[in-house]
Design a protein that fits this description.
With 228 residues, the protein is mostly helical. It has a domain at 94-197. It has helices spanning 14-31, 39-46, 52-87, 99-118, 133-155, 159-184, 189-197, 205-221, 223-227.
Length: 228
């Protein structure tokens, strides 16, 4: 039986490089945007002395999006790290393993059919029961992961087998989701594609605070994998 080699540690210069890019990216996101705000006004808004318009743009629009995007990015990175550790495959990630496709299919079904039954006469995003969509996507991803694990367990529970089963199951789930979008997407296709591709539009501090405890818990539970 062949064994899969363990993951190699990254080059030591990558961590300082990323450590430098993070603050540079944050500063650029604060100072740059669709609305051109002078640097002096940005600094004044951050200190609480700027105009009402600058403070609203910086404190209520840009900063919440930055923090939300950072927390979401941390969780994406941890998901890839855990899968790479389990499968011992440096290319493993939720999309390759079929987990993302399971969440995609569940979210598509939710937006196409559940939303239609709840509110058949309106396509407004504000009137959709969006608060249940993350839970639906999570359940779909967990169900896809369970199916992949079951198939791999019946054949040969090895990292390579799990990866192959994940690719196969993910391809099937993705095809079903695309078929549903093509067949019943109609006026909701823009909403569906926006959710599937991801967006930081209209993110607020409430979204960042919602993600914060889950991110902290994920970091704490992933410490053994990070330390390897």
């Amino acid at each position: 039986m062949t064994t899969t080699p363990a993951l190699k540690r990254p080059n030591p210069w990558l961590l300082p490089l990323f450590g430098l890019l993070v603050p540079v990216s944050i500063i650029a996101a604060v100072f740059l945007g669709a609305v051109d705000i002078p640097a002096d006004d940005v600094l004044s808004a951050l200190s609480g002395n700027g105009s009402a318009e600058a403070q609203s743009i910086i404190m209520d629009i840009r900063l919440p999006r930055i923090v939300t995007g950072m927390l979401a990015g941390i969780q994406f990175a941890l998901a890839g790290l855990l899968l790479q550790t389990i499968t011992r495959n440096p290319l493993a990630d939720p999309s390759l393993m079929g987990v993302s496709q399971g969440a995609t299919l569940t979210a598509t079904i939710f937006l196409l059919f559940t939303v239609y039954m709840v509110n058949p006469d309106s396509y407004s995003v504000n009137e959709l029961p969006i608060r249940w969509l993350p839970a639906a996507g999570m359940l779909g991803g967990m169900a896809a992961g369970g199916v992949i694990y079951f198939l791999a367990f019946r054949l040969d529970l090895s990292p390579l087998r799990i990866t192959l089963c994940g690719i196969a199951v993910g391809a099937v789930l993705h095809a079903v989701a695309i078929g549903l979008i093509a067949g019943w997407g109609s006026a909701r296709i823009e909403i569906i594609l926006e959710w599937l591709s991801g967006s930081l539009y209209a993110r607020t501090w409430d979204h960042a605070l919602f993600l914060l405890p889950f991110t902290v818990a994920a970091l704490r539970s992933s410490r053994p994998s990070i330390a390897r």
